[in-house]
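Methods — Computational structure assignment.
A single polypeptide chain was analysed. Its primary sequence is given first, followed by the predicted tertiary structure written as structure tokens.
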Amino acid sequence: MKKAIVLGGGGFIGGHLGKRLKNEGYHVRIADIKNHEFWNHHEICHEFIKCDLTDPKAVELVITEGCDEVYQLAADMGGAGYIFTGENDANVMHNSALINLNVAKECVLKKVKKVFYSSSACMYPEHNQLDPDNPNCSEDSAYPANPDSEYGWEKLFSERLFLSFNRNYKLNVRIARFHNIFGPQGTWTGGKEKAPAAMMRKVAESSEGSEIEVWGDGLQTRSFLYVEECVEAVLRLMKSEFKEPVNIGSEEMVTINQLAKYAISISGKDLNIKNIQGEEFKTKYGFSCPTGVRGRNSDNKLYREKIGWEVSEPLLEGMKKTYSWIADQVNK
């Protein structure tokens, strides 16, 4: 039986990944600072170790000698309201960098056979994402570096960290740059939720004929990938021999207002969209509207070329499944 360790498996993507690996016959150990919010541990792993991975002693305990695969998804992160206000920058950089420094070193010492690192599209330069209709997020556009958040800078640093350990210590790494992963069993309220979950929660909570709030002018563009497709892409990358950073995301780009309209359409409710920005936003929330870059879309050319697979499910289908789950949470 192959042994896999999922760091950050108490989180959204990590939980789905642990569950898939367990179902495929792996012995799965999860380590996280928190329990999974929506799944019992036995559903997603064989062992769950609750610990702080910024502590090197914890990482030493969790990573075992000769483990087949380590999946490093643990990070201090959240949605736009957490990442882009600037109030959490020190924690985001300090905690995530410490985790990655500990993990890279321990994987070498324990002779781990293969390591996956989850980077983010937030590491791409801001100047390539100013046009909402034509963002450039091809992997070779990463330099000269200019991420729009400290979260993105830390991701870029940690990519280079893992690649350095590959060059100097032969650590067998795979690196994916995730583009807005969404789905059920993920954070949907409380300030750390991502845009699709926030949008669907607002719709689920709204009464007929009312309005939902969308941050910014709603013309900023993004693409969103359903979590099961993300897990499939990760596992295929791990089975490949490709060691450079590669995008994992959808190429179906929508505006944030379109995303809101999808959520409204799925709900069957008659709702209006209220865009809030500028002084109105600042007066209400006490900080500037955190919308991030104007445009971002996954460029999957390299993944198709090197791994030979592509996303199969339209955004709307994933949103239907996610809305059903979030509406159930709201109505509990």
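Note: The chain has a mean pLDDT of 95.
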